[in-house]
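Worked example 2:
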Amino acid sequence: MSNNQLSVYQSFAFGELTQQDVVTIRETIGKQCDESQFKLFMSIAKAAGANPVMNEIYPTVRQNQLTVQFGVDFFVRKAKESDGYKGYDVQLVHENDEFKMHQEKAEDGSYFVVIDEHSWGFPRGKVIGGYCIAYKEGFNPFTVVMEVEEVEHFKRSQIGMQKTMWTNYFNDMFKKHMTRRALKAAFNLNFDDETVENNGGDNIPEYQPQQRERKDITPQQDTIQEPQQQEPEVIDPEVDKIKQARKDMSSKFKQLGITTKQGMSDYIAKNAPNFGDNPSYSDIVGLLSYMDMDIEMQEANATDDDSLE
């Protein structure tokens, strides 16, 4: 790879991830990506602070679609960095195990799961379920309990190596899945896998806000239909792209209900720790992609709440 090609990836280095590491990622786990898919993947990784070398995030491509997936190691690290982290315990339940649990009601009216008994001998039989308990100081343990039927669909997945991994290493994948869900909920780690369309080209794709029908969406007309300039002016395309991307950020903060400068700063510090005071266009694209995932999660939670009424 020439020095010119190497310099292309300079902006994607962050933390302990060097420019040469980015090249290695491109030639290994990113080899299925085209150039714009890879740059978008690295933008999302940089915004989240997820290191591909440490298996914290990785891309898969199928039918020209890029799917960005966060690994369980990323959730474990982010949980350890959170206040009050006291570890977690994940176990599989086999058909011959003795397993009992119940729910208790906390003082605030919420319920939490208590494992009364889980003992076993050999042979244990096939796996029928499992659980993961996340411990956080000052809070009741948060437990995810699942039956095997809830994850069987992963064996039929069409995403990259997911089907192979769930078929050949089911027990490990099941434990990782429960761990991810438990830590994500207990420590409010709002990171989700995302599938994005490939628009081709050699540059980072222009950020396109996800289109969803919603009553409270912020109109975009003010940012799109700007007054025509009477006199032609020379505009730096990169500066213009960053300006528009910042407007998209402002709109998405409103959708997330974050309206104060401090709230915005806290959000960026938590979810894009490498953002900095003068972020590049790729940095902003990564954050916007994450904000879209966060908005989707809010909407999904709101829909779930409505269905319970």
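The first strand starts at residue 57 and ends at 62. The radius of gyration is 22 Å.
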